[in-house]
Specification:
The complex is a heterodimer of chains A (about 120) and B (about 110). Chain A has about 120 residues and is mainly beta. Chain A contains no helices and 11 strands. In chain B, strand 4 and strand 5 form a beta hairpin. In chain B, strands 2, 4, 5, 9, 10 and 11 form a 6-stranded mixed β-sheet that branches. Classes of the chains: A mainly beta (about 120), B mainly beta (about 110).
């Protein structure tokens, strides 16, 4: 079974630009979550999509948005890039079972997209 | 606010010894905790999940404990090997399918 794939793997942008990152989940997985990882803040949850609907959202500004397609593939968009947006962006897929704190849904992470904002 | 904390200092141990990593949480009572391994430049890989009613969980050389009184989970690697060198993260699910991660502890196993 193929794992989670993310494209591109590396990206360099300048301040003010916008960027779109892509994630293809494991076949059969309906939930895709996005995380931002930085040395200072660690891994932080951005949002989760399930069946083309945003199901949960973290504490990030509206410049960060996403969507999910009918084949469960997901894209994440960041507009008006800032230097602080430089990070490793990780996507994780899961079956999507369970929505509460008792969920045991294992998440499978992709290799990430390394975004550098100059 | 809910917090989950790990020792940010790297843990250096000799090959063959047991590595013990700590995860503490506050202002929340997770039903279970998960542990992940992350290698440089790669995404986290799921290792183990332990539920609040389980005191201990094992998988090969890995052992996780969960003490709800101390609000702490310990992650042990026995007979450690240089290949175990990585960053280890603990996490729990908040409402929904959202994972809250600790900052991770970097483990270095020296031959």
């Amino acid at each position: 079974k193929a794992g989670v794939t993310q494209t591109p793997r590396y990206l360099i942008k300048t301040r003010g630009q916008q960027v779109t990152l892509s994630c293809s989940p494991i076949s059969g997985h309906r939930s895709v979550s996005w995380y931002q990882q930085t040395p200072g803040q660690g891994l932080q949850f951005l949002f989760e999509y399930f069946s083309e609907t945003q199901r949960n959202k973290g504490n990030f500004p509206g410049r960060f948005s996403g969507r999910q397609f009918s084949n469960s593939r997901s894209e994440m968009n960041v507009s008006t890039l800032e230097l602080g947006d430089s990070a490793l962006y990780l996507c994780a897929s899961s079956k999507g079972q369970g929505t509460g704190g008792t969920s045991t849904d294992t998440q499978y992470f992709g290799p990430g997209t390394r975004l550098t904002v100059l | 606010s809910q917090k989950i904390e790990q020792n940010s200092e790297a843990l250096n141990i000799q090959e063959g010894k047991t590595a013990t990593l700590t995860c503490n949480y506050t202002n929340y009572s997770p039903a279970y905790l998960q542990w992940y391994r992350q290698d440089p430049g790669r995404g986290p890989v799921f290792l183990l999940l332990i539920r609040e009613n389980e005191k201990e969980k094992r998988k090969e050389r890995l052992k996780v404990t969960f003490d709800t009184t101390l609000k702490q989970s310990l992650f042990h690697i026995t007979a450690s090997q240089p290949a175990d060198s990585a960053t280890y993260l603990c996490a729990y699910h908040n409402a929904g399918n959202m994972l809250t991660f600790g900052g991770g502890t970097r483990l270095m196993v020296k031959p």
